[in-house]
Amino acid sequence: MELPGFLYGYYERRLQRELKPDSIPRHIGVMVDGNRRWARQFNAPSSQGHRAGADKIHEFLGWCRELGIRVVTLYMLSTDNMNRSSDELAELTDIIAETLDRLDDDPTVSVHAMGAPELLPAHLADRLARLTAKPSPSEPLHVNVAVGYGGRREIVDAVRELLRDALSRGEDIGELAERLDVDDISRFLYTAGQPDPDLVIRTSGEQRLSGFLMWQSAYSEFYFCEALWPAFRRVDFLRALRDYAGRQRRFGS
User: Fold this and answer.
1) Which tens digit of pLDDT belongs to each residue from 104-127?
2) Could you say which DSSP state residue 130 is in?
3) What is the set of domains in the chain, with CATH numbers?
4) Which residues are Mg(2+)-binding (predicted)?
């Protein structure tokens, strides 16, 4: 049941007051799922859902800035999504490119691309490369955009780069195999040098990772929300953070 406006505002403020600064996650991963289903509710084309989802991304990043979250990883386009119809894929990549342009105009955000640029249209791959190459602003909200991304591919790419690095330094591959550990692979992931996600949120009611941050999310907390991404509200986000704050995190047990 939807709350009246004044009660909704009161409830939202109460939720935020309950959150303590030390309970706010440093890094949140978000699977922005449900754009097409949201559009179908209104008999609208998929592109309308994707545009509404893009607008929600910018709104969501504003909430993260307000709450002091430092790193956000957005799952925007998976390698599996590349199999969609050519017309829908062209619309979707155009909308993602527009979203990246808006992020480029935001001086408080630094952007890092995650994925396989060779799978993307040239105009989108170029935008991602330019954004990633920009110097980071001071005290930024750091946003990883997973576009043309697959978790298994990321791990394969990390191992491939690890081997190339070892060969470039003349290291014996047999010796590398003997001493190889988790940190060796982590150094070559797309998120190298960043904290692993504390919390991973998926909208739309689906309860699976779909290959998102498979390595990095080993000890993440997961929160699955019924709301479709364009309809995801600030109160839904605060509920997710309240749920996270109430958990006792266990690392390896």
Assistant:
1) 888 889 999 999 999 999 999 999
2) H
3) 25-150+196-241 (3.40.1180.10)
4) 33, 221
